[in-house]
Amino acid sequence: MIRRLLLLVVMLLGALAAAPPLIAQASPPRIVAVGDLHGDYSAWIDIARNARLVDATNKWIGGQTILVQTGDIVDRGADSLKIIRHLQQLDGEAKRAGGRVIVLLGNHEAMLVTGDFRYVTPGEYAAFADRQSKARRDAAFDANAKAIVDFYHQRDASLSPRAIRAEWITTNPLGKVEFVAAWSPSGELGRWAATLPAAAKVGDSLFVHGGISAKYSLVPLVEINRRARVAIQAGDASDEAIINDQMGPLWYRGLVSRAGDSPAAGRPTIDSELDGALRGQGVRRLVIGHTPEIKGIAIQRGGKLVQIDTGISRYYGGKLGWLEIIGDRLIPHSAKRSVK
What we know:
With 340 residues, this protein is of the alpha/beta class. The protein folds into two domains: 21-123 and 180-335, Purple Acid Phosphatase, chain A, domain 2, CATH 3.60.21.10; 130-174, no CATH class. 38% of the residues lie in helices and 13% in strands. The chain has twelve helices and ten strands. It has helices spanning 2-18, 41-50, 80-96, 107-113, 122-126, 133-143, 145-155, 161-171, 176-183, 188-194, 221-234, 270-281; strands spanning 31-34, 66-69, 100-103, 199-202, 205-208, 285-288, 298-300, 305-307, 320-326, 329-335.
């Protein structure tokens, strides 16, 4: 019995040691929260400079500020990789200054790791291209030629091998082979995604990409993040995995809007579900991205829910919004867009 208890303790300590960060600081002096960026690097820099996080050379000047970016850096815009590299750079610079950079896992990062490239732009593939890309692409085709030909022949048996190769080349632009490899569970960015928390508690605020439904309101944050990490590491594309669950923290929109919002419909109201999530996680407010609010930062439900996805990317054409939290004050901001 004692041996089993010791084993459980060792396993728990190991899980905690491997888990992404949950709590950055009990009483942070200043928090800056930024929502979905979707590949728009210039918009991100406009916000970072306006929020006094970086200087004119894009180096950290935020001091002890804690920056929380709530995921969905990727897809829809060309400069996803550039934003990721900058946030990785700022992570080290902020730590040396006594600050912190926390990047959350968004549903679009999870989609890439599980092989869903529906929203990837040509520019995102091109960012990975180099002088060896054509040779890598040719090698990839040659190594999988039979399977590729069989796949195309299921659609049109009359296609010649040359026509199949030409079509495959068109749908696999230079850089895509490297992109797919980087975002695989064992690739550099896939492994990076596994380090990102699905939820982070900073002071008395809980940050998640989508929301916390009643299904997850009593699940400890360490367990939420463990499940997300395991699913990312496995590239789990199943509907049951927390990274794909429509009621899970990466996808849930029910705290913003829903149909049939009444107990009679078998669902708690938004207010009761939100209150349950806040009580269950021991926080005063929930800060979310994922669901765009083009008009700007939306402080709702008496300050208990804050939407910070303001359609920052030029794809949406929303405001360059960011949230500042100082003590109990929630301060919405917007920046001017330098690139139209």
